[in-house]
Amino acid sequence: MPAAVLAGIGSALPARIVDNHELSTRLDTSDDWIRTRTGITERRISGPGESTADLAVQAGEQALRGRGADAVVLATSTPDQPCPASAPQVAARLGLGTAAAYDVNAVCTGFIYGLATGTGLIAAGIARSVLVIGADTLTTLIDPEDRGTVPIFGDGAGAVLLRAGEPDEPGALGPFDLHSDGGQAGLLWVEAGGCRKRLTDVPAERYLAMQGTAVFREACARMAESSVTVLERAGWLVDNVDRFVGHQANIRILQATAKRLGMPEDAVVSNIHRVGNTSAASIPLALHDAHADGTLIAGHRILLSAFGAGLTWGSTVLSWPELD
Ligand code: UT7
Predict the structure, then answer these.
(1) What pLDDT digit, counting tens, does each position of 19-36 carry?
(2) Which domains does the chain carry?
(3) Residue 109: CB within 6 Å of ligand 1?
(4) What is the pLDDT of residue 202?
(5) Which of 26, 28, 71, 111 lies 20 to 30 Å from 304 when distance is taken between CA atoms?
(6) Structure pTM?
(7) Which of 37, 190, 211 for mutating ligand 1's site (highest number of atoms within 8 Å of CB)?
(8) DSSP letter (8 states) at residue 321
């Protein structure tokens, strides 16, 4: 059975930078509160020409570097339209012809679910190469008046190209651990805009509602639990992990999860200070930045773990490959 091997990476961010000082001029908040409670200093906010699909195409182009892909899996909870999925348009714009293309919606865990889906397509012999993109413009779902969510979220995209290879090759993904708990969907959700309740002018229904403290607690517990499971499945000890690339929701969640796992703080990879929580884009953006600045080098053993609305959570591992 072929393994899915990471063979390329790319990222894209909107041009507009919004720092904490700018937010504190229009909301009852401060740079100090946001930095100490979340680790975020600034985030990118999408504007015209920077939809989810626009960002996904930019990140995808970088990951492909002129190569093709048999399938595109776009992890997003903010597609350009409610129907159809955005992945086929992204595939077409990337010049991938009639490649299979579909969206996966597991919100902030979307990229891990997307990697698992891409790995499955390769393992089943359905595709030899899969472009997995995590892209979100979650700020379009944020109430501009809500100081509980505005400081946290940002927009962006990250992408990886997976190719068929051998399980013991550097870059081979897996095993995986994936979970959900729909019984707790109400901790983090947008009530209206779907088929049950169509578009509405009521802010409390059309924007993301988040019970922050409960989500924080669940995120730490579930990411730690899932990481333990995936490390056991991989036959790795915590000490074998060189870098922990978790969903960039809050630096304190990443630090608390690492602590629960007994991992040193310097194993934690984070770019949250400059991008905020970019939902499905968060892990590939963090991987891209860490690769670019040398925090990740070939041979590093990496644990990926995410948690998000749904609720959903999941983890996987890989050894970082040589990439151009
Ligand atoms: O991708 C998954 C999605 N989301 C997450 O993972 C988010 C998880 N949750 C969190 O990251 C944190 O819960 C938050 C960053 C959202 C909030 O941090 P917290 O440490 O849990 O703060 P809190 O909600 O307990 O609020 C502490 C205080 C409160 O004031 P009092 O009651 O102590 O006087 C809040 O009213 O901070 C106040 N507060 C703020 N103050 C200034 C809440 N938001 C703000 C704000 N600026 N933006």
Answers:
(1) 999 999 999 999 999 999
(2) 3-165 (3.40.47.10), 176-319 (3.40.47.10)
(3) no
(4) 85
(5) 71
(6) 0.97
(7) 37
(8) P
